[in-house]
């Protein structure tokens, strides 16, 4: 089999990523198997880059049509990450992922602790550090070192200054409790959940089936929520979320509402329930953080599916809406590969990247999401925190020039409070920066109004913008040479004029 060059592999990767999002089944498995072959070749080209090994291991854990294949792929995932730790011994990422893979597949807990502690020593930071401490706490608990486990949980909570990871920490605490293999009982909506002894288990289940209480049953590999002559089988993650909600006095999922809308098949009027669907453009972390946010604000909700929930209120107070709108963003790592700056990445990629909405400042999150939806790869956004200019970081020079063309073509009817100008030469290649009148203070409401107004326009024309770019720019040939020449000469005005002429 011919080994591709690194440039060919990067082209292949772009094409492969564009086809992400296929449904489960044969097509999805074929896409995963193609990814396995792609990243195996990447590793042959560069064994010292952890990104390739981490991605390959994740693909191994997902691919497979039957248990025998899946078991073999779990071993391959482990071996891929283990080799990555050898080839890049000073980088923490492969050690971090290997600790979680071993814990998930229930291998030796001593190995979980070894790789986890290695990742800590090699400098794993921020969100990953907090999550790793929880995984280590679970490992120590499984080996019987409860005191050490509790200390690690306490350390994770201290690092979680803004309680952004409280949900994750609670889930791992629950996994330790779950090892007791006892059901969790909730009798009334104002009562905390509690553990039930094995002796009382049968009587409790009978009470649940008679409608006297509801039970979250964690005693077996398959988890069940039992009540009123029926039960619902839950995925592990669903059971963990429900257990977490029950730990908080069922504030976000009242027993009566569950009975009415699930078991009795009673229709709830549209005026009483808001149905909210989190689309595929949202990340997994987005959905988890929305669940956590609603729980923290004590907003009663019922999750119909993993990405769909109902707000169990006739009216949400304005004060509560303001709390949601003003949730503070947090710092998060932004990784730029060399090929992100190139013409090929700009011309070929249809969509941008997925960024966690709740990691962003609320005034800019919608704009970041819609720019990426329209194919303008946007890494991050910041509201300026009253001290600096609000801005959006774009991926490379070509994305900045393209946004300027979009701005001139589609924003003519926008009435904005600030001027939003494209700047070049920053670390990411280009950025959109707001400009105000001298001596004027930044107004968060005006920033929010501006970005939402622009985001609405972009969302309306997103399909058209993607199609226009795809039809106009070709990744190779003379067009590539012209675009690169403008960048090398730092003739950004010339680049914008050239793009503008091409789309007319």
Distance between the termini: 45 Å
**Percentage of β-strand residues:** 5-15%
Structural class: alpha+beta
Which geometry do the CA atoms define? globular
Mean pLDDT reading: 77
Task: Please bin the fraction of helical residues.
Answer: 40-55%
Number of helices: 21
| Contiguous runs where pLDDT drops below 50 for at least 5 residues | 186-190, 248-274
Described by strand count, sense and barrel closure, the largest sheet is: 5 strands, antiparallel
Give the total of beta strands: 12
| Computed CA radius of gyration, to the nearest angstrom | 25 Å
Strand order of the largest sheet: 2-1-3-4-5
Structural notes for this entry:
By secondary structure, the chain is an alpha+beta fold. The chain has 21 helices and twelve strands. The strands form three sheets. The protein has a five-stranded antiparallel beta sheet, with helices on both faces. The chain has a four-stranded antiparallel beta sheet with strand order 9-10-12-11, covered by helices on one side. Strands 6-8-7 form a three-stranded antiparallel beta sheet, with no helix packed on it. Helix 9 packs across helix 11.
Question: Which tags fit this structure?
Answer:
504 residues; alpha+beta; 11% strand
Short description:
Helix content is 53%, strand content 11%. By secondary structure, it is an alpha+beta fold.
């Amino acid at each position: 089999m011919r080994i591709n060059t690194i440039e060919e592999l990067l082209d292949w990767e772009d094409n492969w990523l564009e086809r992400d999002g296929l449904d489960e089944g044969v097509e999805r498995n074929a896409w995963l198997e193609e990814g396995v072959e792609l990243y195996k070749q990447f590793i042959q080209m560069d064994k010292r880059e952890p990104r390739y090994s981490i991605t390959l291991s994740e693909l191994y854990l997902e691919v497979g049509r039957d248990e025998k294949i899946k078991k073999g792929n779990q071993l391959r995932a482990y071996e891929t990450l283990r080799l990555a730790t050898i080839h890049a011994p000073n980088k923490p990422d492969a050690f971090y992922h290997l600790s979680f893979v071993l814990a998930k597949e229930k291998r030796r807990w001593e190995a979980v602790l070894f790789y986890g502690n290695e990742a800590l020593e090699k400098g794993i930071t921020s969100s990953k550090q907090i999550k790793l401490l929880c995984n280590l706490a679970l490992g120590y608990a499984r080996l019987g070192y409860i005191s050490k486990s509790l200390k690690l949980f306490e350390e994770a909570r201290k690092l979680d200054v803004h309680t952004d990871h409280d949900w994750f920490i609670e889930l791992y605490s629950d996994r330790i409790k779950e090892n007791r293999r006892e059901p969790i009982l909730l009798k009334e909506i104002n009562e905390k959940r509690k553990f039930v002894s094995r002796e009382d288990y049968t009587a409790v289940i009978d009470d649940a089936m008679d409608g006297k209480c509801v039970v979250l049953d964690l005693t077996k590999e398959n988890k069940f929520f039992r009540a009123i002559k029926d039960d619902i089988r839950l995925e592990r993650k669903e059971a963990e979320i429900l257990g977490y909600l029950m730990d908080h006095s069922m504030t976000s999922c009242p027993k009566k509402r569950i009975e009415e809308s699930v078991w009795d098949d009673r229709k709830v009027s549209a005026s009483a329930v808001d149905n909210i669907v989190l689309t595929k453009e949202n990340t997994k972390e987005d959905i988890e953080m929305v669940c956590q946010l609603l729980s923290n604000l004590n907003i009663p909700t019922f999750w119909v599916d993993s990405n769909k929930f109902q707000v169990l209120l006739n009216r949400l107070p304005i004060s509560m809406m303001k709390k949601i709108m003003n949730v503070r963003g947090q710092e998060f790592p932004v990784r730029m590969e060399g090929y992100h700056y190139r013409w090929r990445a700009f011309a070929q990629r249809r969509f941008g990247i997925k960024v966690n909405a709740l990691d962003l400042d609320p005034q800019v999150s919608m704009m970041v999401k819609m720019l990426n939806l329209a194919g303008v790869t946007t890494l991050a956004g910041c509201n300026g925190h009253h001290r600096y200019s609000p801005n959006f970081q774009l991926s490379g020079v070509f994305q900045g020039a393209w946004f300027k063309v979009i701005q001139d073509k589609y924003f003519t009817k926008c009435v904005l409070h600030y001027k939003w100008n494209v700047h070049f030469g920053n670390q990411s290649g280009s950025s959109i920066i707001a400009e105000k009148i001298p001596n004027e203070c930044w107004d968060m409401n005006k920033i929010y109004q501006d970005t939402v107004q622009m985001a609405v326009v972009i969302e309306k024309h997103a399909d058209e913008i993607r199609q226009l770019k795809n039809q106009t720019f070709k990744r190779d040939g003379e067009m590539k040479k012209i675009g690169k020449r403008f960048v090398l000469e730092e003739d950004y005005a010339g680049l914008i004029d050239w793009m503008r002429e091409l789309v007319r």
